[in-house]
Each structure stands twice: as C-alpha cells, then as structure tokens.
C-alpha cells in the first residue's frame, strides 16, 4: 500500500488552480523528484502533500502506517529562518515536537532519536553552535537531521540544494541517496536540478500547473516532455 497517494487531485493558490490532474503514489523506498519551471505548482503540491493545503478536488491519502505528522519536511528557507537564534541541537530536537502529544517535555526516547540523527548526519561537532552562524551546507544538514526526527518513512524536501556550492550540493545529494537506498526512506524532492533528478530518482513527476508526466526516470528521459525540458535546461 502506498505511503501517500493523490487521486484526481487539484490545489489552488491565490484563488487560481495551481496544480491539477494529479494521479500518483509514493511507496516505501521510492525516490520521486517533482520537476518543472518556476510557478508550475511544485511547491503548492508539496504543501498539499503536507496537508497545509486542502485539495480543491480529489483526494490525498496516506497509508502503510504513515500518519500525517510523520512526514519529515525540509522547507525552502527564508532569510528570517536562516537567522534563527537557536543552537543546532535545539533545531534538531524540534523535529520531535509532533511526537510529544500533550507532554511538555521531551522523553529519553526523543533525545535518543535526536542523538542518532546528529551522529548519522555528522553534525556532532557543530551541535552547540548557533544555527544562524552555520554555513548553508551545515544548516541543511541540521534541517535534514530535524526532518529525520519526524519520520523514518518519508521525507519531503523542497529545493534542498538551492544556493549551495557544487561540492556541498554533491555531498548533500549523496546523503539523501544513502537515506533512500540504505535506510529505505521514501524521498519526495521538489527540484530545479533536472540532471540530478534523473540520476538519483526512481520516479519523476513533471508539473506545469498540471501533471504532465509521472513514471520512472528512464521513461521520462525518453518522453517528449523529458527531452524538451532537458534540452531547455542545457540551452540555459
């Protein structure tokens, strides 16, 4: 059973339909990249998957034991978020907020999960540093660790490498690939990097305010929409 599924779904933004004709599913171990031009509805769809937006029509459902608050989310960062005055540890710990229920305190289990993800992302040496003093790559590692504290099943990543230099970008892609292949975590990534999307993804969803393609990455390479989009990106 899929972790998350869209059936004939559509979402509106600012009173207009921004993403429609959505019919796709994400299962355990999948790596789905959502691609398309700016303004094509990718981020609107991401908010819909998180239930931050209700469908204008159709349905978005979760299954295979996945609860809505168990989707790990790494959002695009605003300038204010990058300047957040908390330690790296505190940011990662906040990923356990949804698991606390009515308790005002973090449990030993919560803190153990935090320590595990700090270790797995290699951010132990910066755990006590102020988040706003970290480099862009370090901040993204911290946010990825935070997302992992929310979910061991599905991560939704919105442009996770935006603004990073090539070496840090390559490193972050490698970490995400490892989480997918070695830990079996399903990945849904909003991306402008079409070549990385094809390299790492099992599936591609191409948006232009509606679903134009959904299927495996190899099929996308050979599709008309895939050839046209890759050609456009290479020309730019």
Question: What does the model show?
Answer:
With 236 residues, this protein is an alpha/beta fold. It has helices at residues 42-49, 79-82, 88-93, 108-120, 136-150, 166-183, 194-200, 217-221, 224-235; strands at 4-13, 16-26, 31-35, 57-62, 71-74, 154-158, 186-190, 203-207, 211-216. It has a six-stranded mixed beta sheet with strand order 5-6-7-3-8-9, sandwiched between helices. It has a three-stranded antiparallel beta sheet with strand order 2-1-4, covered by helices on one side.
Key terms for this structure?
three-stranded antiparallel β-sheet; 236 residues; 9 helices; alpha/beta
Count of helical regions: 9
Portion in beta strands: 15-25%
**Helical proportion, percent range:** 25-40%
Coarse morphology: globular
Task: For the largest sheet, list the strands in their spatial order.
Answer: 5-6-7-3-8-9
Total count of strands: 9
User: Termini, distance in Å?
Assistant: 40 Å
* Radius of gyration over C-alpha positions, nearest whole angstrom: 18 Å
Which residue ranges are poorly predicted, with pLDDT under 50 across at least 5 consecutive positions?
none
Q: SSE order in H/E notation?
A: EEEHEEHHHHEHEHEEHH
The main β sheet shows up as: 6 strands, mixed
Indicate the structural class: alpha/beta
Average pLDDT confidence is: 90
